[in-house]
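G., before I forget:
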Amino acid sequence: MADNAKLTLDGKTYEFPVITGTEDEKAFDIGKLRAQTGYVTFDEGYKNTGATQSNITFLDGEKGILRYRGYSIEDLSSKASFLEVAYLLLYGELPTKTQLSNFEETLNQHTLVHENLMKVFEVFPSGSHPMGQLMTLISALSSFYPDSLSPSKNPELVNLTIIRLLAKMPTLCSMIMKKGKGHPIVYPQNKYDYVTNFLRMSFGNVTDDYMPDKVVVDAMNTLLILHADHEQNCSTSTVRIVGSSHANLYASIGAGVAALWGPRHGGANQEVLEMLEHIRDIDKGDVKKVVAEAKDKKRLLFGFGHRVYKNFDPRAKIIKVACDNVLAKLGVNDPLLAIAKELEEAALNDPYFVERKLYPNVDFYSGLIYKALGFPTPMFTVLFALGRMPGWISQWKELREKNEDIGRPRQIYNGPALRPFVAVNDRK
Ligand code: SDX
């Protein structure tokens, strides 16, 4: 156990307790800092701030470790199904066979969306971005389930609200994909598992009995698991801060989807593919020029860099291998894969990227798999959201169960000091 942390200010010494996590991560508990010293801390972008004590996901950015509830991402992504992982994240343990089949059965009873929600969906123009549609539809669910508005009073109702959202996600995501293509939507069939159902609704048609290839189902399972949680990233922190006001689950997750949309976060997977196409079509494959422009801050290398991973992103390692396998199994020869590998190699051997510890992240290779599976580029971030859903929900659930304080940071004000009001006619 570490000693208390000591802070000396103006000749006075203050002590703050040290908190130690399971894996020996340490933090100063500064909960009484302002009350005792009159000071707050300043940490733009929360680079050094632990916002919560969580039991869900462990990440070591220096060693490239990621675990959900103690299980390694390598094991989970190769041995479990997405629903097993969703159950693990939500309820803390891997399900038994019976628990898993009950979970699947319960989810299957809630896969349909209300026909009036379809009317909200119908008014989106066909070219509207899938993430804007998803964000709106998820928030709109709160109107259809008024019993979700103050869920904390009844744990069974909380669970029903959670089940509804998780169950409807594949339906909502595939509806959005169908709209983009101008095709009629395909309804869920509850005899299929979660991932198969999603792929059927996305790639099937009302006119045929499409069944996805096992290669495609397995690849989708792996990608969804790899995206399922990532502790206090931007969108999850958003979910938690919105949830801390006791906003309902649908409103909190809708806000998380908004945060994920940004190109510095989940929106990067769409940007990566567009960047690779730009390199192929406009830069004529000149990867060296692209790296030079990134170093000159003229452009960002999307899919590179991470706030926490400073060695490698373990998900990117798995996705790179999966990308090679899936494309080979599907017989897809995508020249963008060669460009991506060349770009990675050039960046990893350049001192600018080495010094700043910039490595490929989860978004660098995922889009190439989504593309090979047949998803249009604007759908990529929706697929990230589909995978992240169990993580967001688990983090919201944990926050509510612990009844954490409302999130409300302080600031250092740098604007004008008090000045006299001047009437409009007297202003110069
Ligand atoms: C995700 O946090 C999570 O866990 C997120 C996520 C999850 O699962 O939830 O892992 C998912 O969001 C992955 C990240 C996707 N974003 C991108 O791929 C966009 C490109 N990357 C970046 O914009 C950036 O690296 C961030 C936003 C990911 C991280 O930003 P940081 O930690 O604030 O780092 P920074 O922007 O301050 O960069 C440090 C230095 C800077 O140079 P200097 O000022 O020191 O000279 O590195 C440079 C940056 O300019 N830099 C890059 C770069 N990323 C950082 N330079 C060129 N290309 C890049 N991609």
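Residues 45, 230, 233, 264-266, 268, 294, 300-308, 356, 358, 361-363 surround s-citryldethia Coenzyme A (CB under 6 Å). The two ends are 63 Å apart (CA to CA).

More on Monday.
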